Amino acid sequence: MFRFDSLFDLMDAFPDEQSCVDHLRSIRWRDGEFCPHCNGGRIYHFSDRKTFKCSDCRKRFSIKVGTIFEDTKLPLRKWFMAIWLITNHPKGIASTTLAKDLKVTQKTAWFVLHRLRHAARTQSFNAPLKGTVETDETFVGGKEKNKHAKDRKGGTQGGKGKEIVLGMLECEGELRAGVVSDLRVHTVQGEIRENVAKGTTIMTDEHPSYKGLSGDYFHHSVNHSAGEYVRHYIIHTNGIESVWALLKRQINGIHHWVSPKHLNRYVNEMTWHFNRRDLETTERMNDLFSCVEGRLRYKELIA
User: Fold this and answer.
1) Model confidence over 66-115: pLDDT tens digits?
2) Where are the alpha helices (DSSP H) in 163-229?
3) Residues 88, 112: one domain?
4) How many domains does the chain have?
5) DSSP helix/strand/coil, 244
6) How far apart are CA 193 and CA 190, in angstroms?
7) Over 90: is that where the pLDDT of 44 sits?
8) What is the pLDDT of residues 150-184, one digit of tens each?
9) What residues make up the domain containing 149?
10) Are 148 and 235 in a shared domain?
11) How far is 214 from 217, CA to CA, in rounded Å?
12) For residues 87 and 242, what is the distance between their CA atoms, to the nearest angstrom?
């Protein structure tokens, strides 16, 4: 079992392209070999150790087909470096920085990072959150006074001109967060009911979107507008608010600006990091390798 606690260890563990191919194959086919085209058949191995053939569909393929690495012109060693960097920097890495580190163009580095965020997306939830769950919303976007006059929405009440991110954090457990279209009752409570088990204790602020949860949940709230942040030492939203602080540091400190179109990808990246905060370096990197299925084309990304 390889261990790579530093970038130096990573390069020592994977000195050439074939070692990277072998590692990717061992993780992708850990439950058995399959064809990425027809998902069946017996797999024939060629002597070059890089290509394979399916006995059913008769198609020849590499281990990268059907993954985020498909049709990449970059060597896997550079991809492995990018994966190590994005999985071991809690606030992520800027495409300009990655471009210098990998000696590629900024456009290539940007596409590499988005393909890795595509792999890190939450594809399906296992079980609903339960126990005690903190729920809160935050607004992402520049200040109205700093925008061009034609782009200003007017006013700041309710986060006008900003994108809305809703999050739910289980005490000592999992985080779920994503961009929502608005803060209407049916939108917010629809997300909560989809992700949180009935009978759970939910702690929120005083936003009116949370009113009406008491029928299915033990709902408690704190009144931030009145200066109340903790009630009875246990009712608060401090945990989820610390998550928002992490997201803002990621956006403002690392990327400086994120377009509304791609904001959810950055939220997913932050969520992925947060939910794997207790994993060691090697485990976290291999966890990303285990979810590289699914190709992302550049045209789809910028469409």
Assistant:
1) 999 999 999 999 999 999 999 999 899 999 999 999 999 999 999 999 99
2) 185-195
3) yes
4) 2
5) helix
6) 5
7) yes
8) 777 665 555 778 999 999 999 999 999 999 999 99
9) 132-271
10) yes
11) 5
12) 20
Rg over alpha carbons for the chain, rounded to the nearest Å, is 22
Give yes or no for residue 290 having a pLDDT over 70: yes
Please tell me whether residues 107 and 148 are part of one structural domain.
Answer: no
48: closest CA among 56, 38, 60?
A: 60
pLDDT of residue 232: 84
pLDDT confidence bin for 15, thresholds 50/70/90: very high
**Contacts of range 296-301, beta carbons closer than 8 Å, 24 or more positions apart:** 296/68, 296/114, 296/115, 296/118, 298/111, 301/111, 301/114
pLDDT at residue 225, rounded to an integer: 86
Same domain, 287 and 264: no
Q: Which two tokens stand for residue 213?
A: 């949860």
CA-nearest of 132, 134, 164, 131 to 237 is: 134
Tell me the CATH number at 186: 3.30.420.10
255 phi and psi, to 5 degrees? -95, -20
| Encoded tokens for 262 | 């791609």
Q: Tell me, yes or no, whether 267 and 176 share the same domain.
A: yes
Same domain for 90 and 159, yes or no, is: no
Q: What is the pLDDT of residue 143?
A: 74
pLDDT in tens, 118-148: 998 866 667 899 999 999 999 998 777 777 7
C-alpha of 57 from chain center: 34
Same domain, 98 and 169: no
DSSP per residue, 44-109 = EEPTTSSEEEETTT--EEETTTTBTTTT--S-HHHHHHHHHHHHH-TT---HHHHHHHHT--HHHH
User: What number of other Cβ atoms are within 10 A of residue 248's Cβ?
Assistant: 13
Mean pLDDT over all residues of the chain?
Answer: 92
pLDDT value of residue 156:
54
Report if residue 77 sits inside a domain: yes
In a domain, 21, yes or no: no
Query: What spatial distance separates the first Cα and last Cα of the chain, rounded to whole Å?
Result: 41
Tokens of 160: 């006008």
